[in-house]
Amino acid sequence: MTEQHEVIVVGAGPAGSATAYFLAIQGIDVLLVDKSDFPRDKTCGDALSPRALCVLDQMGLLDDLRATTQQADVLRFFAPNGNQVETPVPGTDGQPSYALVVPRLILDLAIQQRAVQAGAKFLGQNAVVDVVQEVGGSVSLRVRHAGRVRELRARGVVIATGAAMRLLQTVGLLPERPGLMFAARAYFENVGGIEQELEFYFNHISLPGYGWMFPTSPTTANLGMGYYGRLHPTPQVGFEKFVAEHPRMRQMLAGAEQMGPVRSYPLRVDFHRSPKVRPGVVAVGEAIGLVNPFTGEGIDYALESGQIAAKVIGEVLSTGQAWTPAAFRNYVRLVNERFQKLFVLMTWARGLYYNQPVLDRIFGRRFGNQSALETLISVSFSNASPARVFSPRVIWEIIRPTHGFQGSR
Ligand SMILES: Cc1cc2nc3c(=O)[nH]c(=O)nc-3n(C[C@H](O)[C@H](O)[C@H](O)COP(=O)(O)OP(=O)(O)OC[C@H]3O[C@@H](n4cnc5c(N)ncnc54)[C@H](O)[C@@H]3O)c2cc1C
User: Fold this and answer.
1) Element (H, E) at 101
2) pLDDT (tens digit per residue) in 105-164
3) Which of these, 93, 108, 104, 99, lies nearest to 59 by C-alpha position?
4) Ligand 1 pocket, CB under 6 A
5) Which of 70, 225, 243, 388 could form a disulfide with 211 if both were Cys (CB 3.0 to 4.6 A apart)?
6) pTM value > 0.90
């Protein structure tokens, strides 16, 4: 007999597992399917913004994660000219004023297990979904699992497959090749000079792009670099160059050892153009391009979109509506309201800010109340309207003549 569920979620990353959790707590019969077995790694910088921590808190995960993983209270930026600026991680009412660095091996398992504890069923161990079809008011999925091809059925399907594009193409959710960023990272142990800080490097690196050091413990770190366009033959080549040439890297890594290989993965940053629903299907997280085009962070938006999708699915199921794009108009409206303006403006901001003179200007002086830096960080952390990056005050601060830079160190 064909296995049947109310909802099937394909992909158990932050977006899919959060969707499954928020569906399960409404009493909805949900099956979560992933082509990996858990725990599984995902190439990432592992930094969780205050926004991400808010959703994890609502899922009852924050206290445990905070007790067992690395907290960062300060952001440190290295300008192209070598100046450094530091600023506290901004929080607003109800948002923590710190970030956590949680390796995805730990984070994704915690969220997936939380969904299962809440009542979601899980099908892993190479369960690859390769066809999703609407058939007479329900949806049929073809799953390759344990050497067999199985059919599963549901009222509707949530696609949360991240930057993997094949399934999205087959269901018509990827009509054109999306805008991509590329990034690579590796873990290191016995790293020297680690503070409770997230470090961002705009020096000794090709722009538009940046390098990072996110501590995973007082002696271990996730080091990486990301960029737009075709700056490097491969992300690994760009990463090796960054680590070899950056003075801070040479200092921190003098007695360090690399743990595991350098891994790279693309990032989809095309939310404002991507389709979000099809008959029988709703997509969430990076599957709808929800990665910040300015910072490359997307775990927060993945969790939030899963939460929004689960709320709307609950309404559609409880009112007995068919799973049509019209029924999910509210989902499209809610995610657009939350993210559209941010994504459009952050894409423009990337064009304005990611060049040497502007970065030298905004990271070239102490963090001050009305500075371009404060605005940029507030917007990046969603504490201010995205339109503020283009306010006359900020633009003036970037273009006005100066008499030399004042570095903080
Ligand atoms: C190098 C790098 C650094 C990054 N750093 C950060 C950072 O520091 N902070 C941050 O917030 N974001 C960061 N990001 C972005 C972040 O990793 C993504 O935005 C986030 O993982 C998206 O979550 P998701 O649940 O949508 O997709 P994913 O986490 O990619 O999960 C997708 C899941 O779908 C499964 N899957 C795919 N296809 C199928 C299929 N056909 N059948 C079954 N299962 C399938 C996969 O196995 C996977 O488990 C970074 C990305 C990269 C590449």
Assistant:
1) strand 99-101
2) 999 999 999 999 999 999 988 899 999 999 888 999 999 998 899 999 999 999 999 999
3) 108
4) 10-16, 33-36, 42-47, 128-129, 160-164, 167, 183, 185, 224, 265, 267, 285-287, 291, 296-300, 302
5) 225
6) yes
